[in-house]
Amino acid sequence: MPEKMRAVVKTKAAPGAELIEVDVPTIDPDQVLVKVKATSICGTDVHIYEWDKWAQSRIHVPQTLGHEFAGEIVEVGSQVTKLKIGDYISAETHIPCNDCIQCLTGQQHICGNLKILGVDCNGCFAEYAAIPEIVAWKNDTSIPPEFATVQEPLGNAVYCTTVEPVLGKSVLIFGDGPTGLFAAGVARVAGAALIMIVGRHPVRLEIAKKMGADILINGHSDDVEAIVRTETGGVGVDVVLDMAGTQVAIDQGFRLVRKGGRVSAFGVAAGPVQLDLNNGVVFKGVTIYGINGRLMYDTWFKVANLLKYKRLDISPIVTHTLPLEEFEKGFSLMMTRPKISGKVVMFPEQ
């Protein structure tokens, strides 16, 4: 086992990050050490990289970035009982305490003392990563690393889309980021009758079409509400998936969901937003679900089966693969506007 490794580290409280040599993590008794095969860039990583207000309030430097990965266990702690060296794993990034009321009532994903991999502790943009056994997920070896690494955001989409059945229903997705694109594919394999997506970036809208979206709506240039009302005969949609979190998406979503319909709120707003509670929710009898993370581990079983049995092809969303040393290019691809990438996957092995 080497003593040193390469890692992408936020070394100072400023924009950017550095690829530097650091010590290979020493694991705790309940942890495993993983040799990272693939790791992918998430929007949260971009916030940390850009060093926005949220990152400044949450991240303590120096810290290794990243929370999405797939890799092979090379060492296990003395208290680890269910994993062994050689297991091919990914990780649930929400690390629960297993002691709070949420954890004790089956809501580990919203643990009252939640820690997040790569946010509250060192992450996986590195050759090796240490994670607690409780969040390790054994992968089927048939799933390639570039797909296994994105199970975490795919799980967001699975939870958001299927928190209630969508079979035979109309679904409207706001947001053409990777999770919105995943949601289009999930809605298709889950049997949605009509899938519409509102986005801003032509490249990503074309990916949404490949994933199964029927109607592509450009939020900049199209009359979103007129198109949706025409497609639904003026009734509105059965299901709204808000993956954007903007005031415009929230306003349009609650106007366009039909009476008795459902809104899944996953997009994180930049600040406080307004909601017409009376007309948008109360008088319409709308059900709202707040979506945070993935159900542990119900969502993971669904995600794994969709990939293992090839029911869902996510290859259109994995648009770029790079060696870890080109992480700056990866972040540039993620930040370029208009957006030209889906998921960017990096490979640490040289």
Automatic annotation (TrEMBL):
The keyword Glycoprotein does not apply. Residues 16-346 form the Enoyl reductase (ER) domain. One of its GO terms (molecular function) is L-threonine 3-dehydrogenase activity. Its cofactor is Zn(2+). Pfam families: ADH_N, ADH_zinc_N. Keywords: Metal-binding, Oxidoreductase, Zinc. Belongs to the zinc-containing alcohol dehydrogenase family. This is L-threonine 3-dehydrogenase.
